[in-house]
Amino acid sequence: MTTHEGGCHCGRVRFEVDAPAAIEGTRCNCSICRMTGYLHLLVPKNAFRLLSGQDDIETYTFNTGIAKHYFCRHCGVKSFYVPRSHPSGISVNIHCLNPESIGSIEVSLFDGANWEQNIGKLSPLND
Questions:
Q1: Are 49 and 15 in contact (CB under 8 A)?
Q2: What is the pLDDT averaged over residues 96-107?
Q3: DSSP letter string over 107-126?
Q4: pLDDT digits over 35-67, tens only?
Q5: What is the pTM (predicted TM-score) of this model?
Q6: Residue 125 — pLDDT band, cuts 50, 70, 90?
Q7: Which DSSP helix (H) or strand (E) runs through 4?
Q8: What is the Cα–Cα distance from 68 to 71, expressed in whole angstroms?
Q9: pLDDT value at position 120?
Q10: Strand runs labelled E in 31-103
Q11: How many H-runs (helices) and E-runs (strands) does the chain carry?
Q12: Which of 21, 4, 3 has the alpha carbon at shortest distance from 79?
């Protein structure tokens, strides 16, 4: 395991996450992921630590309200969120990680535009 650091564009929101250096990411084509270019790294909540910026985070929810989309109220970047698919975990935006700790990234595709038909294809979250 590697401790990756990351955050938003303006630097007010900073976090660290424990994950392998060889990252397995997921690209989703649901409306919000497609529009924001989000690249998912799903981790258990205990592998994620917010270092700074708690007061700079706003929350956006829609549809079922299960997903909690957190973004910096200054620069607008969503560097992590609680996903509907795994509400006991955190999805970190791989694009928001500092690149020096990343050994490699392998990306798989998820058809989130047809979420209900495909949710069973996602791997469970391993705590």
A1: yes
A2: 97
A3: EEEE-GGGHHHHGGGSPPP-
A4: 999 999 999 999 999 999 999 999 999 988 899
A5: 0.92
A6: confident
A7: strand 2-7
A8: 10
A9: 87
A10: 39-44, 48-52, 57-60, 68-72, 80-82, 89-93
A11: 2, 10
A12: 4
Measured CA to CA, the distance from residue 88 to residue 7 in angstroms comes to 21
Separation CA 82–CA 104 (nearest Å) = 24
Q: What is the dihedral of CA 63, 84, 50, 24, to 10 degrees?
A: -130
Residue 28 tokens read as 């989703």
Q: Which of 13, 5, 97 is nearest to 56 (CA)?
A: 13
State the Cα angle at 64 between 88 and 84, rounded to 5°.
30
Token pair belonging to 11: 């630097």
Domains (range + CATH), the chain: 1-38+49-81+102-114 (2.170.150.70)
Token couple for 26: 């997921």
Tokens, residue 61: 């929810």
Banded model confidence at residue 116, pLDDT cuts 50, 70, 90: confident
Residue bearing tokens 């919000």: 32
